[in-house]
Structures are given as C-alpha cells and as structure tokens.
Amino acid sequence: METGEGAGGPGGPDGPGLRFGCASFNQDSTSLALGTKTGYKLFSLTMVEKLDCIHESETPDVYIVERLFSSSLVVVVSAATPQRMNIYHFKKGTEICNYSYPNNILAVKLNRQRLVVCLEESIYIHNIKDMKLLKTLLNTPSNPSGLCALSINHSNSFLAYPGSATIGEIIVYDANNLNPVTMIPAHDSPVAALTFNASATKLASASERGTVIRVFSIPEGLRLFEFRRGMKRYVTISSLSFSPDGQFLCASSNTETVHIFKLEQLGPSGGDEAATWTAYMGKMFSAASSYLPAQVSGMMSQDRAFATVHLLSSGQRNVCTLAMIQKLPRLLVATANGHLFIYNVDPLDGGECMLAYKHRLFGDDDDQDEITESEGSEVTGPAQACPSYAATAALPASGPVTATLTGYSEDGGAKKGEVIPEHEFAAGPVCLDDENEFPPINWCRDGTGGGQGRRS
Prior knowledge:
Structural class: mainly beta
Strand order of the largest sheet: 23-24-25-26-30
Largest sheet: 5 strands, mixed
Low-confidence stretches: 4-18, 267-301, 365-378, 388-450
Radius of gyration: 22 Å
Helix content: under 10%
Strand content: 35-45%
Mean pLDDT: 76
Number of helices: 3
C-alpha cells in the first residue's frame, strides 16, 4: 500500500540524526523510495535478506519522492525548488516533464488514473496519462502537513483530505468523476493520518491525539471499526497502512511501538455474522452500551492490537507497511536514522512480531550512529550497492520556473494550454510500466492547464 508521511518538509530534513528527508513505499509495497540531502534512492522489496538499490539520483534535498507501482515513473520534489514537481523516467535517465504551482508542494499521490498534488490550501488533480489538469480544489482548509490519501484502485479513485483545520472532519472526493462523495465526522481533534485499503472500500484515520484509530466504509462513510492505540499519552501517528488483503491495519507513531490491528469480517446482520467470541461480545457490548455512560460504552467497543513491534528507540519519524514478501506476511518499518526493519507477522495468533532482518539504507561510511540491537536480535546487512549516478541519473531540470499556473481554471482543463506534443522517446505511446500492470500511456513534454509545464 502506498504509505508515506515524509520525515521532512520543504525546508529539508529536520531534527538531530535525521538520515533522510522522506520515505515512501509504493502503492503495492514492492519498493521503497528515500529522499535525502544528496539525492533519492529506490529499493526493491522482493526478498527479506536482500535489499537491492535499483536507482540512485543526485537531485539535492529531496523531500517528496513517489514511484508509480513497479513502473519507471517517479515523481520528485526538492527543497531547492519546493513549488516544482519533476516527473522522471528513471530507467531512461530522462525527465518527462515538470510542473510549477503557486505555493510549496506538500504531498504528491498517484495511481494509474490520477496524480494529485496537495498544497496547504489547494489540491490539483491531474489525469496521469497526459498530465492534463482536471480539477483544482481551491480554498481547502489549512493543511500545513499536506495530509491526503489517494486510493490505489484506479477504478474507484477516491481522494481523502481534512475537511477542517480544527476538528477531525474528512472529505472524500471521487477523483475519477470529479465530485465530492461524503464528509466523515471522524474525530474530535484534527486528522493526522489517512489511508485507504487496496479495494477502496475502507478508509482508516487517526487524529492528532493518536489514541484512537477508526475505520470507515467507503463511499458511505459509516464507522466500521474503532481501535485504541493507547490511553496513557497522546502520540503523533506517523503512518497507517492496510495489508494487501485488507484484513490488517498497521500504525506507527513517535513512540517505540508499532501496532497491528485485525479487522474482523462481520456480516451485516443476524445469521450472516461470524460465529466468533469477538462477534458475540460485540453484540453484548452493543446491547449494554445504552445503559452505560458514554465513556464506558465507548471503551468497551474498542479492540486492542492484534500484534505489536517494539522498536529500539522512540521519538524518530518512521513509516510502516504490511506486505507479502516471499509468500509470507511481513511488517516493514523504515526509520529516520536510515534503517529498514522487516518483521514476521503471525496472521493467526498475532502477538509480538519477530525481527527477520534489519537493513542499512546507507553505506557503512554514512552509518556512524547505528543503533544497538538487544542481544540475540542482531540480524543486519547493508543494502546492495546502487548503480552509478552516471549510469542511471535523471537529467537535471531545465532551470527555475518563474511563471506559475498560467491559464488554469477551477474546473481544470487546457483552456489556455498548448497541444501536448508527441512523446520524444517513441513514435507511439511509451510504456512506463515494466511489469505490464496497466496499458501503455501517453506522456507530455509540456504542461497544460494546472501547472506551468517545461520542456525537458
């Protein structure tokens, strides 16, 4: 699943010991992208004990890097030009196009239909096949972290973003049909984390307090599950991610604990409901709730974590995801000091997850502050060497972009844009996906509509 609250921002990496500016898993968690002060790296996640660096670029101060599934398309934003988004074909080492926006870019999300750019008070929705601006959502509630989520299911391409800067409202927007779907009153305090499941039928959210995680049905917006991460303290949720089958949800924070919750698949009513102890107790609690104070009944309806991981340090930004690697369920956690932890997850009994391997995401020379594992748990190795920059790097952007957003309208479209020329790399459409996951797509060299495009 696509996951990735960045570990930095437009100002570049922040905080002592921070090893990278951002980290994101791609939409199906088969690769990891890191943005650093000196460039960005892409890693393949097909094996537990081997971490292959498949690309490295020297673009400075990268704080957003997103890869489209297993394709050659990668989106990069640098703190040097925080209002510009560069799109590269990294295997060809070529920039496809770049777009500039009126303010700093805070997040970029993409699936096979849409590319979404989030600014603090506006959101731009592009058609990913030609980068035409389809819709601009203006005057959105102040969103300084760029929090948003885009479903990876392109046939149900839903976008979620905060509907308020003061309370936990969530707007769900249909990015295919370009119309709002629902508003979910999810939390009392502002929303801090969002993620869709793979089929775009569920949306998970957490608030700034970080104590409760809720799961809602999409598109209806009905509350399905409520999980309590903890009551002792407020925390900052770093990331949320569903497992590929939607049965589990992981949550990481600025504490040392990563939680995995299990979503019991209960039928809508009566005989269809699973005959489990959890289902029975759920009925009992539901019946009793009308006789109990609100706080008590609320507590009784909330489930504890199915499985947990205890990291060796707290206070660091991290990003987590659940993935199938070598046919087994794994929890992956990339931490801000430059490590990737891979844990085995027991899908039947849960409990404390066992560390399978720890990878260093940087070379030995960079890794002076390596954390110390407890005795008996040291399972570590360096990432495989990256290809040389000369062999793989994308071409630099063609200079600063001074004009921004000429000719865009709220309804989007190329009202004043140029006709998109034929792609320079082939007579026909260019296939950017090496695993044939979706049909070949046409890409632009010049922008139209929303961002001011530049020739590469």
